[in-house]
Amino acid sequence: EDISTIFKAADKDNSGTLTVDELREVIEDILIRYPQMDLYLKSNRLFDVTDLFRDSDGNEREEVDIEGFKLALAHVDSQMKSLPATAQVAAQQGTYLSKCFNHMEQCKSNPEGPLRFRGSERHAFRPFRYKHFGQFAPLGGEQAAAELPGDWVSLGHSTQWLWYSVYASKQVSWRTRILVVSDWTRRKVFGRDSSRI
User: Fold this and answer.
1) Which residues form the EF-hand domain (predicted)?
2) pTM of the predicted model as reported, rounded to 2 decimal places
3) Angle between the 35-43 and 66-79 helix axes, to the nearest 10 degrees?
């Protein structure tokens, strides 16, 4: 349904096909409205959305019909996975929602989202975009593994200390940060307390 509406909005001359110029006119709104498209292009190192519409030999097409348009967008959508159920995702979603709630009245009169393909107005808000900051895994023996943006992987003691600093900085209050750091220091000096196990 949405694909047909987008296609009709982009097809200015009602020819039943989209030229590269017609596609470029709506692509910015498509990338804002569907962040998964932008992620797909970046992860596959495609520099332009028109790269999606190349033929099987890799040649650029002059025009794309509705079926080619649907196939390309369906392919992108099938490659995308849902967001992981982690605290990192939840924290970013919470920040996004609080921003939406705080600016609700302002966005009613001055919408910031992409154009609606059905109608002439805009969506009130931009869609949620998740930014992956990496992940840590403890390995035991004061060692950890980290996968960080840019396909950078780190192992060892220094990674454990990096994890400690990130974890402490994400605490809500200074009181909690001090308690967490003092607990780690006490454990380092005196060892783990196994009397309660």
Assistant:
1) 1-33
2) 0.58
3) 80
